Amino acid sequence: MAGQDTFWLPRAGSTIAKEVDFGWNLVLTVSAIFFLIVVGAMIYLVVRYQRRNENEVPHGPEHNTKLEVVWTGIPIAIVMVLFAVGFKTFLSMAVAPAESLEVSVTAERWLWTFTYPNGTVSVNELRAPVNQPVKLVMSSKDVIHSFYVPDFRIKKDVVPNQYTTTWFEATEAGEATLMCAEYCGTGHSAMLGKIVIQQPKEFQDWLDSAGADAKLPPAEAGAKLFVKMSCNTCHTTDGSPKTGPTFKGVFGRTEEMSDGQKLQVDEQYIRESIETPAAKVVKGYQPVMPVFKGLLNQKQIDALIAYIKTLK
Ligand code: CUA
Predict the structure, then answer these.
(1) 21-51 pLDDT, tens digit each
(2) What is the DSSP string of 86-115?
(3) Which of 48, 144, 214, 229 has the greatest count of CB atoms below 10 A from its CB?
(4) What sign for the dihedral angle of Cα 11, 17, 22, 23?
(5) Are 280 and 272 in contact, with CB atoms under 8 Å apart?
(6) Is the CA virtual torsion 153, 157, 158, 162 positive or negative?
(7) Nearest residue to 140 (alpha-carbon basis) of 296, 290, 298
(8) Widest CA span of the chain, in angstroms?
């Protein structure tokens, strides 16, 4: 494996990583050298020129043109080199290669939705083929988020009412962590996703299988969607409560809502709770679930209902 975490940096998992790391290491090295020079000179001068007796009169500094030119010229040259290195890397990061696979990214409190060219949708898990540039066209539904993948050395704000783009080309198969790097509310720290890099064939099979799922019995398709749409982040199937109520035995149960109203959980209630979750919230829970209206079609909602019915 090419990528290993080092003491300083996470593994270098993308083509741009080497360039970014070079710039980082260059700045770090220059800073470390000058730190040693400045602190070393300071210590030496303090010891060398400390006052030896009470009556000693210090001499003021004298002008030295040679010294002035040297200590102005060298830093200017260094700063120009750092600028050139940084600007070159900035350009490579800003422009996605023309042959990129384009994936649309939607951020909202507190999840990531990915839409592929063939219409496949995934939540909190971006899949991509290895050795192929992937361009992300990103927008937010609510507040500012930031798409941050340390292993790929990319971070870009995701802004409402506006599109921002970034791109990466993964150099090896495996997983990388996606984080939100802009404080966006109470769920910010849990706004995590996974980037799964696969061999091109494997990736294509996964992309095609989205169509195959449509042929499964509804309850099975629902079980897959339950994981794919990350419902399991907040809802368990074993009876224990999480951010949201458990789905174990929920169908047909009478629940009390936050406004005191009591109702029996049926198809209509589940559908409403998926599409507009804040409409009726079970007592004791916060209205924090994202709106799934428009992300799931009728058939997918029916499949989820069929699955929830099986959780006895
Ligand atoms: Cu989204 Cu922080």
Answers:
(1) 999 999 999 999 999 999 999 999 999 988 8
(2) HHHHHHHHHS--TTPEEEEEEEETTEEEEE
(3) 229
(4) negative
(5) yes
(6) negative
(7) 290
(8) 98
- Res. 1 pLDDT band, cuts 50 70 90: very low
Indicate whether residue 141 lines ligand 1 (CB < 6 A): no
Residue 111 CB–ligand 1 contact under 6 Å? no
Q: What is the pTM of this model?
A: 0.70
CA distances, 241 to each of 119, 233, 235, 248, 311 (Å) = 33, 11, 7, 10, 14
Strand partners, 169: 133
In whole angstroms, what is the distance from residue 243 CA to residue 111 CA? 14
Query: Over 169-186, what HEC string results?
Result: EECCCEEEEEEECCCCCC
- For ligand 1, say whether the CB of 178 is within 6 Å of any of its atoms: no
Distance CA 309, CA 218 (A): 11
CA of 77 to the centre of ligand 1 (A): 39
pLDDT (tens digit per residue) in 77-103: 999 999 999 999 999 999 999 899 999
CB 135 within 8 A of CB 100: yes
- Which helix (H) or strand (E) segment is 146 a member of? strand 145-149
Ligand 1 geometric centre to CA of 291 (Å) = 16
Q: Whose CA is nearest to atom 1 of ligand 1?
A: 145
